[in-house]
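pasting Sugar ABC transporter ATP-binding protein for the record, 261 residues
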Amino acid sequence: MSQPIAGQPLIDQPLIEMRGIAKSFGAVRALHGVDLRLDRGEVLGLVGDNAAGKSTLMKILAGAYSPDDGEIRIDGVPVKFDGPISARDSGIEMIYQDFALVPQLTVAQNIFLGRELMTRRFGLPVLDRRSMADRSRDLFSALGLRVPSVDSPVHALSGGQQQAVAIARATGFAAKLVIMDEPTANLGAPAIAKVRETISRLKRSGVAVIVISHRLEDIFAVGDHFMVMKHGRLIASRAVDDTHADEIVEMIVSGRDRRVS
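structre below
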């Protein structure tokens, strides 16, 4: 599990800090000393082309990869993750583009996968299916999301409904940060609107969100900041109200920030 290296959470520190994160895969340098800072209830849009290093950086934050160099801090306290479970224990959840759901299992079973609720029957431990179903319904209601039934198998759901299940699973266990990888890709307009609404709800509740997306309009609609990456480097950070789509696209393509002389 993640272990604070020293001290206790520091007052007035950002929720998440990544300092000088570097990562290589063999001879390929994927990240070159990238910094990231995120406050509670802040929505950050992480943008760049397909080789920018966005997913690698987020997989390090989610515990899937270990950095070669650099430091991660939560509430000002340095932490090290030994895998995704330890990152999750620290309140960091990641929703992957393919949702990472088990199609044959029900909605409720997917939400509680790896966190199953148990009861005892005739002195033996058994799954508490009723409690998991009830809590799943409560969770969807609180998030303003809908699925046909929490007892439906996931393979029977639409793409937008599967996205709702992934969001519910990520936010249902006291998450501090939710990372969304292309959350509106391949969704229709109603489902996109629902995802944006959910991000806004998380923000209002104090949950930070990082959105990896090629759809700049989603970030402008619900985000606070952009972070632009190119070839594993941080190019620029911008407040949403201090930039426009043409500037962001130019930085993504050129890898240069015109505001820096």
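The longest helix spans residues 189-204.
The chain has one domain: 3-254.
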